[in-house]
Design goal:
By secondary structure, the chain is an all-alpha fold. The protein is built from 4 helices and no strands. It binds adenosine-5'-triphosphate.
Length: 125
């Protein structure tokens, strides 16, 4: 394999290891994985439009990315020091805030995209 290709393969393996490691070690990440699976199954069942799939996938990717950044920040702060410090608290709280923003966005997307067809299913059942 050429130098460029092996560097790219290594970078991809590291990124994949980061994702799998977060799923293994982070409870919140596993919750997001379950939520994403439920949303995808609902999307398939309700046969949502292509545009609605884009919104759902954007919401899922956004929450996963925010959670991975949050994990990276938590670990970096802990690597520097596990001592209680107001800046450590502020850094971790900001990172958690970013996840909260994305989670609220994802909830809104889920309600807007999946709410009406689910409601129709319930009413016509
Ligand atoms: N070194 C610290 N100094 C001050 N406050 C901290 C420190 N570490 C954590 N905290 C506070 O505790 C909260 C939780 O931090 P923690 O690192 O336990 O993350 P967590 O949300 O429990 O994530 P996880 O369950 O994935 O480990 C932070 O948001 C912050 O308010």
């Amino acid at each position: 394999m050429s130098g460029w290709r092996s560097r790219e393969a290594r970078a991809f393996r590291s990124a994949w290891a980061g994702l799998i490691g977060a799923l293994r070690d982070e409870r919140h990440m596993r919750f997001h994985a379950v939520a994403a699976t439920v949303v995808i199954l609902l999307g398939l069942w309700l046969e949502v439009s292509r545009t609605d799939w884009l919104w759902l996938l954007l919401a899922i990717a956004g929450v996963w990315s925010a959670e991975l950044f949050n994990t990276a920040i938590e670990r970096t702060v802990d690597r520097i020091s596990t001592e209680t410090h107001s800046l450590a608290r502020a850094a971790k709280d900001s990172a958690a805030g970013a996840v909260l923003v994305m989670a609220i966005f994802a909830l809104a997307v889920g309600l807007i995209v999946l709410g009406p067809p689910m409601w129709r299913m319930i009413v016509h059942a």
